Amino acid sequence: MADLTLATLAAQVFTGLVLGMILVLLAIGLSLIFGLMTVVNFAHGSLYMLGAYFGFFLIAYTKSFWLALVVAPMLVGVFGLLMERFLVRPLYGRSIDDPLLLTFGLSLVLVEAVRLVWGKIGLTLDPPPALAGAVNLGFTYFPLYRLFVIGVTVVVLVALLLFLEKTNVGLIIRAGSRDPVMVRALGFDLGRVWLLVFGIGTALAGLAGILAGPMRGVYAEMGVTIVIESFVVVVVGGMGSLPGAIVAGLVIGQVVSLTTLFAPKFAEIMVFIVMALVLLVRPSGLFGEAGLME
Amino acid sequence: MRTLTGWIAVHPVLAFLVVFAVFPFLVPYKALATQVLIYGLFALGFNLLYGYTGLLSFGHAAYWGLGAYGTGIALAKLQVGSLWLALLAGPALAVVGGVVIGFLCLRRRGIYFAMLTLAFAQLLYFVGFHLADVTGGDDGLRGISVPPLVLPGVRIPLDTSLAFYYFAFALVALAVAGLKRILDSPFGAVLQAIRENSDRAVACGYDATRVKHLSFVFSALFAGLAGALDALRLNVVPIESLYWSTSGQVVIMTLLGGAGTFFGPFVGAATWLVLEDRLAVFTESWPLVVGAIFMAFVLFLPKGIWGTLLARLGP
Predict the structure, then answer these.
(1) Which of B97, B87, B89 is nearest to B70 (CA)?
(2) How many independent structural domains does chain A possess?
(3) Domain contains A192
(4) Quick check: is A266 in a domain?
(5) pLDDT in the model for residue B315
(6) I want to staple A51 with a disulfide (CB 3.0 to 4.6 A). Which of A114, A136, A206, B25 is the partner?
(7) Whole-angstrom Cα distance, residue A15 to residue A163?
(8) Which of B111, B287, B298 lies at the smallest CB-CB distance from A38?
(9) Contact criterion met (CB below 8 Å) for B215 and B191
(10) Helix, strand or coil, per DSSP, at residue B60
(11) Are B293 and B83 in contact (CB under 8 A)?
(12) ipTM value
């Protein structure tokens, strides 16, 4: 630890910020879907993986990273729409555990299907030439692509929050997560809202996947560990709370990144220790309301 | 058929003894019979928590793994010479895990519970992975030799698959009888009351969290015993014992067989193992088929094989 300089520390904080952004994208999708439909989407990690694979092949065929960055999440979103319509919808009104069980089965199927179709060997996704290289931040050099990931995530989050807060559809979504019966009584078709939110949430997972691809590699099991970390983010932030997902995602990103610097063996373990501490001190999570969705 | 299912419903322990006494001679090879027993016991423990108490754990690999490592470390690292002592170590460790993790997970209800159990099981997986000096890490814990079974007056080596089967059979039978006793007790009735309506059980004066915690610990005990037996069966504890896929496996087995039914777990374990055995010959992608079958069960046959049979024929 003798060679620890402020520059290494700063670089590691930035790395944690990037991981935090990916976790926020995943956790917000999970949280949106859960908040409105009380469905925990276990296949969220597989959709993240699909986003990266779709991205890889779109880049290979179209030679355009930018096109892939837009189209891959949309494809994953369409997959999400089909998933809601044909797999999750028949389970509304049944036990809260059933959608979780079903999407767990789906996650097994997707991982195996990807292995079968595209092979077991991981793929390398290169960042576009425009984003290659590193920039001088004054105190340290940092890969340009990672800065780009931070920028894209911030833009998407701001757009999402504006959509939820300022538009009529956003108003219905927020009302629907508070009191679905009342929203229905007012004459709104919640089924379509559910479909839309499922599409948005899964598209965010796809976006996280293609963004993470160039940093973390593309392979069939890439979603497994990170989806469990996103569950932790959702639990720490408070289920159904968007500010909670953002704050907790950034905190967990820093926890992983800084533990990696000081005690690499504990990096994966610290996440769960933080979760256990939050549960002991504040069982409903940082931003969660006690008793909500139980 | 109706009288048969009725008889099984009234005398489940006897039915277990009858079927599993001859089971090794009904399946293609004896190793499969032992696996069905052990995984059936694992699923039995999971079913106590999910099927009878209504708590979906996605982290039962933790107790299976603690049981396996507890017994495995006692034999391979601590050189414990007594089979009984080694067999005690694993389930005891699983119970400790169940007490601590159960306490933490039961701070949240509903859907959080599943995610928390999963997270804590992953925590144990990473601990096991990095504590390579004790657990063997990624390579698994090797060098477990099974001491002979010592009973008053006799000493039976467990080195043939049939001898080991009947040893496991005796222990699993005890566990089955124990589960029957738990379910028939007032405590068992409260468990099922909590599953049906937790708030009402609380209104009746029961401390629901304590009852759930106790059910969690019993469930961990059964899963731990199953893990311990599996360590003896394999002579090695793979690191995957603690991995989330093991938790998923027991969820699938129990639901295929029928959650909340007494024999569902054994039916499900047998179904999974036979499917794996048959499918693996044709394709490496057999988990794809199992996953698809599982999805179909959740959608169309939520009572599982045994549960549907019981509902059709009626006890």
Answers:
(1) B89
(2) 1
(3) yes
(4) no
(5) 55
(6) A206
(7) 29
(8) B111
(9) yes
(10) coil
(11) no
(12) 0.91
